[in-house]
Amino acid sequence: MPSHTEENYLKAIYKLSEAEPGAEVSTNSIAEALQTRPASVTDMLRRLGEKGLLSYQRYRGVLLTAEGRRVALLTIRKHRLWEVFLVQKLGFAWDEVHEVAEEMEHISSPLLVRRLDEFLGFPEVDPHGDPIPREDGAMLRPQHRLLSELKPGQQGLLVAVKNTSQPFLQYLNKVGIVLGCDIKVLDKILFDNSLEISINNAPKTQVSAEVSRNLFVTS
């Protein structure tokens, strides 16, 4: 059974690989994601390679094996289910759950995870709109696009956020952007690509290009 640290590595590699499926993930990008030294990453990659959880070639990068991918998806599944539980059953806000779920995702009981999923009504997404892997590893692939891709006059429902850091979620709370809200693009400022938007038909507000690149909407 992989250690907590090993599960964290596999989860990070899987998430990084989603940006470019099939491409090898670099040591530096893993170190940046986990906020650790590249030398430490190299040591861990060797260990995971010896366990058959990934394929690692020095100076080229890594690819998860089928078993490594299974462990990564299981860890993500547990994390996102616990986030749903914390929000729906314990009243946590969406900006409060990540660190708690980081601890709870390492509980290994398959029966507990199965009962938790059933108790929650088999949710398909977590509180941030991220899809929850099923027990067999299958995962919903939502059809959405970034708010930054919308043109003036277009609108969509907010279905997910790309950046799930606490400061970003707290900013969204402050300006009234939550999952399910209707966002209409009123104008795009060419100088910095910021957007003037209306949230649920309220008076306009302005969000930066960085913010618009981290919001997923569907029409």
TrEMBL record:
SMART domains linked to this entry: FeoA, HTH_DTXR
InterPro entries on file: DtxR_MntR_Metal-Reg, Fe-transptr_FeoA-like, Fe_dep_repressor, Fe_dep_repressor_sf, FeoA_core_dom, HTH_DTXR, Iron_dep_repressor, Transcriptional_repressor_C
Principal cellular location given in the protein's record: cytoplasm
Transmembrane parts of this sequence: none
Compartmental location: Cytoplasm
Function: In the presence of manganese, represses expression of mntH and mntS. Up-regulates expression of mntP.
Gene Ontology, cellular component aspect: cytoplasm
Name assigned to this protein: Transcriptional regulator MntR
GO terms of molecular function: DNA binding; DNA-binding transcription factor activity; protein dimerization activity; transition metal ion binding
Domain of life: Bacteria
Subunit record text: Homodimer.
Pfam families: Fe_dep_repr_C (PF02742), Fe_dep_repress (PF01325), FeoA (PF04023)
Family per similarity comment: Belongs to the DtxR/MntR family.
UniProt keyword annotations, A-Z: Activator, Cytoplasm, DNA-binding, Iron, Manganese, Repressor, Transcription, Transcription regulation
Organism: Hymenobacter edaphi
UniProt domain HTH dtxR-type: residue ranges: 1-65
